[in-house]
Every structure is written in C-alpha cells, then in structure tokens.
Write a structure and sequence with these properties.
Structural class: alpha/beta
Radius of gyration: 19 Å
CATH architecture of the largest domain: 2-Layer Sandwich
Strand content: 15-25%
CATH superfamily of the largest domain: ATPase, nucleotide binding domain
Distance between the termini: 17 Å
Bound molecules: zinc ion
CATH topology of the largest domain: Nucleotidyltransferase, domain 5
Largest sheet: 5 strands, mixed
Length: about 300
C-alpha cells in the first residue's frame, strides 16, 4: 500500500513515497513560504505527479503535514503564523482530488512525528507519551492511552513550547507570552542569548565539549528549560515516556542533563519516566503521514 507524504516546513518541502512503512523515495526542496499557498500547491502538484510516475502501482492517498493550527477532521488550515498565506482559504481535499486524483489527509507536523515514531520508529508500542522536537522552536505533541490528543480546537498538546517556565523576569516569546520554554531552548532564542546569529545546537555542542565558558552557561539554561518543559508535559498529559526528536536531539549530553532535571523534579508516584531519542528524526513526519492511511494510532 503506497502513499505520498508531504511535509510542508518553515523553509522546505519534503515529499516522500512510502510503501507499507518503508520510505521508497525522499525528496527535499527549498520553498518560499512567503509566496503564498497557491504557488506552493502548484509546486507540490508537479512534484507529486513526477514522484507517482516513478513508482508504478496504486496510490492510497496523500498525507500533508502542516506547521500550524488545523481542523484535521475537516482537512482545513485555520492558522499558520504568517506563512503559507491564503492556506486557510483553500479547499485542500478538492485540490488533491482534482490535481492528483487522491484522497488527502491533513495533520499538524509535530503530531505526525509522534505518530510516526510510535507506529514505525523508536517509540513502537508506546501508549502514553509526549514528544519534544528541538529545532528553531520547540514543537510538542501528546499521545494519551493510545490516542493522539487533539482537543476541542485542535491545539491540545501542540503548545508545550509555550509553557511558561519563568514568569518573573521571563524573556519575551514570539507568541506574545513571557518566559516560554522555546524562548530559552529554541534555536531562535539560543541565537539571541548567545548574541550570535551563527549559534545553533551543533555549535553549542562543539563549543560545550571544547570547554567554552559561554557555551557552558547556555548549556545550563537549555538543559534546565528542556527539563522544566518536559516535567510540565509529563504532568499535563500523564505521560510515561518522553520522546526527543529534531536536530537538537543529537546532542546527547544536553538530553542527559535535561533528563537529570526531570528525575529530580517530576512527580510520578506510578513509577519512572522513560526517555526515547528518535533514531531517524528526518523520517518521523512522513511515516506519521503514512500511518494516517494504515494505523489506529492517529
Ligand atoms: Zn511562547
């Protein structure tokens, strides 16, 4: 059973052909998200048709992951923080049906990632888990008792990056809030804290391991922020498992320090929280999209 899986990111479009949980082909191209959703769909139509022609056989559907707030049941974009202008005005299922002859399903990208890790990745079989995706921002999602948590407005579980962890002298966040987790732990915040635009998780890891004093200070802030954020997610969603993904999850010492903070501060009389690191974070979203046509955890 084959599906097309499109992950519309902040700066790039990832398109994959997936058959029975195996990624047959993966294509990543930069996209101008400021050009508007209609232009993005023109680009996506061409790429989908080309990929379908390269793999013979029947296609079950197209899964689309979007970095915003969605009505997933209605397959409609509600809000996407200034990018993909006009996405909320477009009938996406109609576009997919008319342009590609495919049924389309739509899901938030962090939610797709946790589903992909549970159905095909490093978190197989987990039923009560939260995910933190360490990137430009901190994306989160939650699965409770085997079901992805969505909530009345489709936002439940997604805003863990905007849990406030410092209300007194908290940093201003891009969401309008104060002291949010991602205002300390996202790479946009890391650049500000370092007063250096070249700073990211790789740079932090390199400088930290070399014993650089500024990197040690930033490491301490990030580890505590991620730990405090994870504690709040565990408490909010009664999670047994924390899954780390995204570029920052490759920094093992940072995750270990965050985990130590969690064990010191979390309240879980039922037992001990388990930590999992996504082994192939680059595939988790597309495998989650594939799951929408196959699995029950979605
Ligand atoms: Zn925020």
């Amino acid at each position: 059973m084959k599906t097309l899986c499109a992950d519309l990111g902040g700066t790039r479009l990832k398109l994959a052909a997936v058959e029975n949980g195996v990624v047959l082909e993966n294509e990543v191209t930069p996209i101008d998200t400021n050009a508007g959703m209609e232009r993005v769909l023109e680009n996506l139509t061409v790429r989908c048709r080309a990929m379908m022609s390269r793999h013979a056989g029947e296609w079950k559907g197209l899964g689309v992951a979007f970095p915003g707030i969605l009505d997933e049941a209605a397959r409609h974009v509600i809000y996407c923080s200034g990018k993909y202008a006009g996405a909320d005005k477009i009938d996406l299922p109609k576009w997919a049906s008319e342009s590609l002859g495919l049924e389309m399903k739509l899901i938030n990208d962090a939610r797709a990632a946790i589903i992909g890790e549970i159905n095909y990745g490093s978190a197989t079989g987990e039923t009560d888990a939260v995910m933190l995706i360490l990137g430009t921002g901190i994306g989160t999602a939650a699965v409770c008792q085997g079901k992805v948590y969505r909530g009345k407005h489709g936002m439940a579980g997604l805003l863990g990056g905007h849990f406030s962890i410092d209300f007194d002298n908290g940093r201003k966040c891009i969401c309008g809030g104060t002291g949010c987790l991602e205002a300390y732990a996202g790479t946009w915040a890391l650049k500000e804290l370092a007063e250096d635009k070249s700073y990211d998780f790789q740079r932090l890891e390199r400088d930290y391991l070399a014993g650089d004093e500024k990197a040690k200070m930033l490491f301490g802030i990030q580890a505590k922020a991620l730990g405090a954020g994870a504690v709040s997610l565990i408490h909010a969603f009664d999670a047994e498992t924390v899954i780390f993904s995204g570029g920052g999850s490759r920094f093992a010492a940072l995750l270990e320090a965050a985990e130590a903070y969690v064990y010191e501060h979390v309240w879980t009389p039922w037992g001990k929280v388990k930590f999992i690191v996504a082994q192939h974070p680059e595939d988790s979203v597309v495998l989650g999209l594939h799951s929408l046509f196959v699995h029950h955890v979605c």
